[in-house]
Amino acid sequence: MKVKINVRSNPQFARALAGDLNRAMSRTMEDLKGDLVASHTMPFDTGDMQNDTFSTVRQDAKTVTGLLVTDKPYARYQYFGISRSGKKLNYQTVHNPYARSHWLEPYLDGVFLTERFNENLKSVRGGG
Question: Could you say which DSSP state residue 89 is in?
């Protein structure tokens, strides 16, 4: 999901707003990670993938991008539910009872992220 905002203002305000956008996005990505963990849908055996997933924010002159990242080499296979050999994975549900593939799908409509970003931006701007 992409949100595009164009703002023209004095440089001091623009710098302050850029910082606030960055903080709001950082909080939003932490909210996403927290909700994902709480939903118990990410496959969990020893916890390496879930516990080593982190959020980060990238910002340039025009965009603020939030990322949810894991450096585990098997994360792609787990996400798509297919082993390296091409066989369908069967997820154990001892630790996460709803473990499945495509665990980010509920967030792809953008509703959760938009609501959280708006709340976080309001908070960091001093409005809530």
Answer: P
The predicted model scores a pTM of 0.84
Instruction: Note the pLDDT tens digit of each residue in 12-53.
Output: 777 888 889 999 999 999 999 999 999 999 999 888 899 899
Describe the crossing of helices 11-39 and 111-124 by its angle, rounded to 10 degrees.
130
Angle at 66 between CA 61 and CA 70, to 5 degrees: 135
Per residue in 100-114, pLDDT tens?
999 999 999 999 999
How many helices (H) and strands (E) are present in the chain, helices listed first? 4, 2
DSSP one-letter code for 94: S
Q: Could you write out the three-class secondary structure of 29-68?
A: HHHHHHHHHHHCCCCCCCCHHHHCCEEEEEECCCCEEEEE
SS3 86: coil
Amino acid identity, position 108 = L
Quote the CA–CA distance of 117 and 102 in Å, as a whole number.
Answer: 22
